[in-house]
Amino acid sequence: MSPSKVSTISWDTFHNTVDGQPRGGKSKHQGVNPATGEKLWEVPIGNQQDVDDAVQAGQKAFVSWSQTSVEKRKEHIQKFCDHYMSYADEMTDLMCKETGKPRQFAEFEVKGVKGFFDHHINLDIPEDRMEDDEKVITTRYTPLGVVGAICPWNFPIILSLGKVVPALLTGNTIILKPSPYTPYTGLKIVELAQDILPPGVVQAIGGDDKLGPMLTQHPGIGKISFTGSIATGKKVMAACASTLKRVTLELGGNDASIVLPDVDIQKTAPELVMGAFQNSGQVCVATKRIYIHEDIYDEMLKAMVEFTKTVKVGAPDSGALLGPIQNEMQYEKVRSFFEDTKNQGYKFAIGEPEQARGKGYFIQPAIIDNPPNDSKIITEEPFGPIVPTQPWSDEEEVIKRANNSNAGLGACVWGKDIERAERIGKRLQAGSVFINSWEKPTPQAFFGGHKESGIGGEWGKDGLKAYCNAHVMHTYKSK
Ligand code: NAD
Predict the structure, then answer these.
(1) Could you say which of 34, 92, 163, 293 has the lowest number of CB atoms within 10 Å?
(2) Is the domain of 275 the same as that of 400?
(3) Pocket lining: 235 vs ligand 1, CB cutoff 6 Å
(4) Catalytic residue chosen out of the listed positions 81, 151, 284, 468
(5) Is the pTM of this model over 0.85?
(6) Are strands 407-408 and 450-451 parallel, antiparallel or unpaired?
(7) Does the annotation count 109 as an active-site position?
(8) Could you give the 3-state DSSP secondary structure of residue 407?
(9) Distance between CA 357 and CA 465 in Å, rounded?
(10) Which atom of ligand 1 is closest in space to residue 239's alpha carbon?
């Protein structure tokens, strides 16, 4: 139970963790370093036996973990945080290899997750009390049991620990399933957690596409917290229905950014570009459609193009601002948006329709000037560095255009007239609206999507309730 740094940790072997023990497997797979195309280390592919064993261990651990006082749980979580943070440099190296992110952004994610620990450690489990002459009604929030956390590859640490920490705080146990594309940091974090937490409280099983359904269908799991695509989210919800599991779905977005005519063009242009191209566009709440007032459309587009010319794309230690696309499947998907744009004859304000692929999955960013409303680039989420711009003149009409999407994750409004920006922002159908900033989710704010971007949400204060049942006691005063 020592939170100090243990020198025996190996950074080139990886295993699943079940009931506090490392577990290998007969079948293995390997991630790929997206900056070089080189295969990385082998990891075991978890099977039904691993899932059954982990669920059993999670249920056993739940008995005492859920009864451990919140203060004691917080102490454990703090020690886990300190232990994890003592390996920040090693984690950053690992993150650079598994995601290809520029080192400064890999480090930002590795260290930034401390904010998620700190935020949750400072929260109390909610409790509501109502009293009248005859009774007291107390609503407490009790843990659900074993949680399954199914995670994507774009922010493998934040989007994993963003589930683990609130689940543990509220008294649940959790089984983490990292994305097969980025298994390494998740497996290593759970391995480190075993130095601090009792067996079965946090477990990890990595695997292939068969593994997710084993979790969503398992009757011993009380809740699935899923972050990923809308298409998979629908499958997850359907699978969870058979056992009426609680489910939180954090899904894809098609975020609109509306630019008012009074903005400072030179200051706003780089922000718009980074809102779209942060993490090479592989962000659920990246800006995916930019609506610029017609009075400043040409000048803003020109300034965005000039800034984009300065954006370097490259490997983690090349001083680049943008890294590669994380995997080949996604690379081909993003390329299909370039091809469609070219085939349809839409205008590239910047960006090359044809880009030769080297060993890594690098794509130079592109801005598409005023494609039609029904184009693929407007209606679908590319999840890569390509973004369309369109002009607007009428406020009502642009609000309609922004809301004309099955997705409703995030949105931005930019303007010196804050009152007007907020008035527009209030009418945007999105879970998180940012005024004069690109999309920057924070642990202090509840995060969840409207429409097909999700069900429920996490973080903030109310996010804790996503890991709880409401337990309401009606105590009548003695007669
Ligand atoms: P994905 O849906 O392909 O995979 C997500 C996870 O689901 C992976 O761990 C995968 O192995 C697992 N999975 C696959 N099939 C499954 C099944 N049938 N049942 C259960 N699990 C299954 O998504 P991705 O490509 O990893 O991530 C990119 C997508 O995620 C984008 O659409 C992006 O917008 C979205 N995303 C959303 C958020 C958010 O918070 N709203 C955050 C990041 C990414």
Answers:
(1) 293
(2) yes
(3) yes
(4) 284
(5) yes
(6) antiparallel
(7) no
(8) strand
(9) 46
(10) 19
Residue 259 φ/ψ region, left for φ over 0, alpha for ψ in the -120 to 50 degree band, beta for the rest = beta
List, in sequence order, every residue forming a beta bridge with 432; answer none if it has no partner. 410
According to DSSP, the β-strands at 21-23 and 28-32 are: unpaired
231, 297: one domain: no
Beta-ladder partners of 275: none
| Residue 236 Cβ contacting ligand 1 at under 6 Å | yes
In terms of residue numbers, what domain contains 167? 16-251+453-473
Pocket test for ligand 1, best of 153, 182, 185, 284 (most atoms within 8 A of CB): 284
Task: Name the H helices within 124-210.
Answer: 158-169, 184-193
Same-domain pairing of 459 and 329? no
Distance 227 CA to ligand 1 centre (A): 5
Determine the distance separating the centroid of ligand 1 and the alpha carbon of 134, expressed in angstroms. 49
Tens-binned pLDDT, residue by residue, of the chain (479 aa): 445 566 579 999 999 999 999 999 999 999 999 999 999 999 999 999 999 999 999 999 999 999 999 999 999 999 999 999 999 999 999 999 999 999 999 999 999 999 999 999 999 999 999 999 999 999 999 999 999 999 999 999 999 999 999 999 999 999 999 999 999 999 999 999 999 999 999 999 999 999 999 999 999 999 999 999 999 999 999 999 999 999 999 999 999 999 999 999 999 999 999 999 999 999 999 999 999 999 999 999 999 999 999 999 999 999 999 999 999 999 999 999 999 999 999 999 999 999 888 899 999 999 999 999 999 999 999 999 999 999 999 999 999 999 999 999 999 999 999 999 999 999 999 999 999 999 999 999 999 999 999 999 999 999 999 999 999 999 999 87
Q: Is 284 one of the catalytic residues?
A: yes
* 85 and 207 share one domain: yes
